[in-house]
Amino acid sequence: MSNQRIKIGLSIGDHNGIGPEIAIKASQVLATNPRIELKLIGDRGVIDFYANQLSISVKELPEIIHVPTIDNLSDLVPG
């Protein structure tokens, strides 16, 4: 069996839904497994907000891949 860690990227999904809360709670469970290398994917501000609501220190979270929230589609710039 390989000693290689399993890499998982966990998206927070829609920041207006239950996705961020579920992703943060799941990250706490997955962090107990030393074979898993986890990264949360989503808007850092949203993740920080929900972690605070859940009384979870941001320092306890896995690495965050910041993908900013876009509230207005006209803010998108192709290319």
Overall pLDDT? 91
Strand content: 15-25%
What general outline do the C-alpha atoms trace? globular
Helix-strand pattern? EHEHE
Percent range of helical residues? 25-40%
| Uncertain runs | none
What is the SS-derived class?
alpha/beta
Walk across the major sheet and give the strand order: 1-2-3
Oligomeric state as shown: single chain
Describe this structure as you would to a colleague.
With 79 residues, the chain is of the alpha/beta class. It is built from two helices and three strands. It has helices spanning 19-30, 44-53, and strands at 6-11, 36-42, 63-66. It is globular. The termini are far apart. The relative contact order is 0.21. The model has no long low-confidence stretch (mean pLDDT 91).
